[in-house]
Write a structure and sequence with these properties.
The protein has 495 residues and is of the alpha/beta class. It is 35% helix and 19% strand. A nine-stranded mixed beta sheet has the order 3-4-5-2-1-8-9-13-14, sandwiched between helices. Strand 4 and strand 5 form a beta hairpin. Helix 1 packs across helix 18. It is elongated. The mean pLDDT is 95.
Length: 495
């Protein structure tokens, strides 16, 4: 008698809940994460559903279910639309026009919608109810930012004894600590939450309640978007008032850097570059440098092609280190380098760069605004990329730069410190130049170190190639998230 085949283990599944995701709705980086991470998790063999509101203008999806969802005694007739996304993941679009059919996602005229607590409580409850309607729920729930902060809370309270999703572990990811989802305490009963959660160990925050705090205190694992930032947000300087709350959960707080879209950002096939190049053949990079100089109206000569080109693409605000640049503005044109900047922001910093460009038309080029093709061209054509941020939870441009053989000069904070290794002649793992003290002098010294090494083209090439060979894909990040999922599952199982 042939041996009986062993039954295949059930496929693991994750329900991701968030307020925006590419290509459906976007106001910031959260949407990019929830657009890319599900596909990367699916490539690792997980069944992935990402739930978000079906905002005004979203036409995607096929109607698959209609359920009444009651929150605080108010029932909404919710429709669920399913839309396939990349690599077998799917989006679950929660349709409730009275809550989501609005001009903008979160507020109007710079003021949050007053019913945002209900809007995002319904999102979470609808996603959980949909997941619970079958015979088996998700293996894990992954909630993102304050809008999904009640998911871990509901799993520990309202759904704790549910026959399908009771005991489901959760992971909570903080993308932007500045937005904490606070509202008056009288929302508790309107969210079906008991008053015993109005404590400092739970949701209470300075006499109000905070969805963000609820997510932090009830998830099995908390993650944020870089390893260094995970430590920084536990300090008063960066913690935005949540440092003590996060220190209390420090054993379960992990930093996982975001990935980048390696299809869109690939110098070997980037349609915005005049010539392709790669780590195996850097020859085409010079064509991009020539084109950057030309587009900025800078001289295109043998001398300017030999001179290092320093690029910067950024919002022109203090957080991005523009006050440091202002402090050394007089020194920049005296360096043996050419500078180009692209971005918008505070008027004083826009004026700083336009004045530098007007005074030094052979050394400085400034473009106020944003231009996606030009951003790709700068990443491709610059020799050095400048990111002197005051703080930077993750950062993307330093990873684009490394992939394009453009050596980053960064301040050692947040994701910049995670992804750029400071140059040392004794190390083969160096990928850029890192400074730590937040002063113009420290920035200038790091920039001078980079310009000095540029004169040694053999060592410079080694530095470029080390950066180009790093893996900053979403596949790498997804593997780290799966480790956290497995850890959370063991925590609930008592392992």
């Amino acid at each position: 008698m042939p041996p009986r085949k062993k039954a295949a283990a059930p496929k693991r599944s994750v329900l991701i809940i968030g307020s925006e995701a590419v290509p459906f709705a976007k106001t910031g980086g959260l949407a990019d994460v929830l657009g890319a991470l599900p596909a990367a998790l699916a490539r690792l063999g997980w069944m992935v559903t990402v739930a978000l509101p079906r905002y005004r203008g979203i036409q995607d999806g096929t109607l698959v279910e209609r359920l009444p969802v009651t929150v605080g005694g108010v029932t909404a007739d919710v429709r669920f639309f399913e839309a396939p996304t990349a690599d077998g993941a799917r989006a679950l679009l929660v349709d409730c026009p009275e809550l989501y059919d609005r001009e903008t996602l979160y507020g109007a005229g710079g003021v949050d919608y007053p019913d945002n607590p209900r809007r995002f409580a319904v999102l979470v409850r609808a996603a959980l109810e949909f997941a619970a309607r079958g015979g088996s729920g998700p293996t894990i729930v992954h909630a993102h930012d304050w809008q999904a902060g009640l998911a871990p809370v509901y799993l520990k309270t309202l759904y704790a004894a549910h026959p399908v999703i009771g005991g489901t572990p959760s992971v909570f990811t903080i993308h932007n600590l500045a937005y904490q989802g606070t509202c008056e305490a009288d929302w508790l009963p309107r969210l079906d939450l008991p008053w015993n959660l109005f404590t400092i160990e739970q949701l209470e925050y300075w006499g109000r309640i905070s969805f963000l705090k609820g997510g932090i205190n009830n998830a099995e694992i908390i993650t944020t978007v870089s390893r260094k930032y995970a430590g920084e947000i536990q300090t008063p300087e960066v913690g935005a008032g949540f440092d003590g709350i996060l220190r209390r959960r420090s054993a379960d707080l992990v930093g996982i850097p975001n990935g980048i879209d390696v299809e869109q950002w690939d110098p070997s096939r980037d349609p915005f570059l005049p010539a392709a190049f790669s780590a195996e053949d850097l020859g085409g990079k010079a064509a991009s440098k020539r084109e950057v100089l030309a587009q900025y109206g800078l001289p295109v000569t043998d001398a300017t092609m030999r001179r290092p080109l320093v690029g910067m693409i950024s919002r022109m605000i203090d957080q991005k280190g523009f006050d440091l640049i202002a402090a050394i503005a007089d020194d920049l044109p005296r360096l043996e380098a050419t500078f180009v900047v692209l971005g918008t922001g505070e008027a004083r910093y826009q004026q700083l760069w336009t004045a530098l460009a007007a005074a030094h038309p052979d050394r400085v080029g400034a473009r106020i605004g944003f231009d996606e093709p030009l951003a790709h061209l700068i990443e491709g054509g610059a020799d050095i990329f400048l990111m002197p941020s005051r703080f930077e939870p993750c950062g993307l441009n330093q990873m684009y730069s490394l992939r394009y053989g453009t050596v980053p000069v960064v301040r050692g904070v947040g994701g910049l410190d995670d992804t750029v290794r400071d140059y040392s002649p004794r190390s083969t793992r160096s990928t850029g130049f890192v400074f730590h003290e937040y002063t113009g002098a420290a920035l200038l010294e790091a920039l001078r170190r980079a310009l000095a090494l540029y004169g040694d083209q053999r060592r410079w090439r080694t530095l470029q190639l080390a950066g180009m060979r790093q893996d900053y894909s979403w596949d790498r990040s997804a593997r780290e998230y799966v480790k956290m999922y497995e850890r959370a599952i063991k925590m609930v199982a008592g392992g």
